[in-house]
Design goal:
Elements (H helix, E strand, L loop, with lengths): L1 H21 L20 E9 L5 E9 L5 E10 L4 H19 L3 E6 L2 H9 L8 H11 L4 E6 L6 H9 L6 E5 L4 H12 L3
Parallel strand pairs: 1-4, 4-5
Antiparallel strand pairs: 1-2, 2-3, 3-6
Helix pairs in contact: 2-4, 5-6
Amino acid sequence: MLLEKIASYAKNYIRNLKNLEFRQPRSQNSVNKKWKPPLLNSYKTNFDGAMFNESDEVGIGVVIRNCKGELMAALLEKIQKPQSVVALEMLAARRAALFACECGFQQSSFEGDSELVIKALRYGEMQHSSVGHILKDTMSYASCFQSCSFFHMGRQGNSIAHALAQRARLSFPIVVWMESVPLDIMSFVMSDISSIE
């Protein structure tokens, strides 16, 4: 019985990793399709959430990089499934702001692939009252930064955060890396770095 569970777990893990490599962006209309580095002496924090249909849990992925595209910190977190995808994306934004603050990166731009959430973060208001408190928390964390901005990024330009969020499915509740990520995520990092003009 235990060996069957281990074999099943391994098969699912490998299948999920293969799926990460071939996933297409959510929005083909997004203006920013490729990741671009932040300005000199600042950081870029990408975030994403992933729903797991087979579970009552979801994943959050966050990655912080410098102007050379180098990894400064990364996080994945598995949490209870919220009431909506919008709530999940807002929770991912809040976790990204908190993580960047905890790591001491005082100048950061934040990118996510939910246009609705980015608009709410830019303008400080949300039409979905069920996530207003999460928006308020996120804005509170954002006020701690010397400089902070929010941008919409298509899935293709947010691939590392997305891969981390998907990886949470098979992980401990929270995992943090400083200046590194697992090898299966590193291919996304190298792809972004090679595309820097």
